[in-house]
Structure prediction request, 277 residues.
Amino acid sequence: MSGSNPYRDDRGNKDASITRRGGEGTVDTTRRSGPIHPDPGGPFLIGENMTGGYGRNGPDILHDCTIAVDRGEIAVIVGPNGAGKSTGMKAVFGMLTLRQGHVKLDGQDITELTPQDRVAQGMGFVPQTSNIFTSMTVEENLEMGAFIRTDDFSSTMEQVYELFPILREKRRQPAGELSGGQRQQVAVGRALMTQPKVLMLDEPTAGVSPIVMDELFDRIIEVARTGISILMVEQNARQALAIADKGYVLVQGRNAYTGTGKELLADPEVRKSFLGG
Ligand SMILES: Nc1ncnc2c1ncn2[C@@H]1O[C@H](COP(=O)(O)OP(=O)(O)O)[C@@H](O)[C@H]1O
Ligand SMILES: [Mg+2]
Prediction:
């Protein structure tokens, strides 16, 4: 089985900030949420003028970086490897202490909230790596996704199965036995189980074929049409910007270009430097 799946060995446990071998991440679990401040106006979700890096004394990775998404829209972050795209996503999700800047969700300043409390406020996050429990079945993964819910989540699971029919078929299989594209569906489905208002996806199409990528993008558009905002990092810049309401090009932790997806696709500088001409 393992030899037949090219994605099997390419995922998991590479991002030490999310999962360590010992099972302990760098997220400070002793940290308690601070207050939420009302701050009306602006986009639905915004990480604004974010400056910060890893750990207490690590160098700044983000420099005055701003990423945002409006209600029901798709915003896409692109840029070279190591530009700080994943770091920006983690900062917005509260996995990084900002030295400067704020994160605001639906008119509230949530900069002081822990990631757990951001989930309770309506944020869903699918990290770039280690985004499923490989030894658990597909259905158990979805159940894990519903961890903060105390109500009956069976109708949400039904919605996930309608969105991704293959997951219903494979619901009793360990998620680790699925193909790369199917695993990404599990990861997205898992995040949808909390009924988020905004879904953050870090490279949801990594390592999948162009056909599977198109299918995943179609499903993501479908999710956005239900009113869920999508903030997404993508390596497939051209295809992702084509479906983006808003696009951000990050370079070395800074905003290099910002515009609508169309504007960025048409920008000669962006094309030359980031879209292969
Ligand atoms: N957990 C971490 N601890 C320390 N530095 C990190 C960590 N994750 C990423 N970095 C550093 O932050 C920079 C940006 O990385 P990343 O946000 O992963 O870029 P991208 O997602 O755009 O490829 C890189 O220099 C990388 O080495
Ligand atoms: Mg990344």
About this structure: The pocket of adenosine-5'-diphosphate (ligand 1) is lined by residues 16-17, 54, 58, 61, 79, 81-87 (CB under 6 Å). The domain at 17-274 is CATH 3.40.50.300 (Rossmann fold).
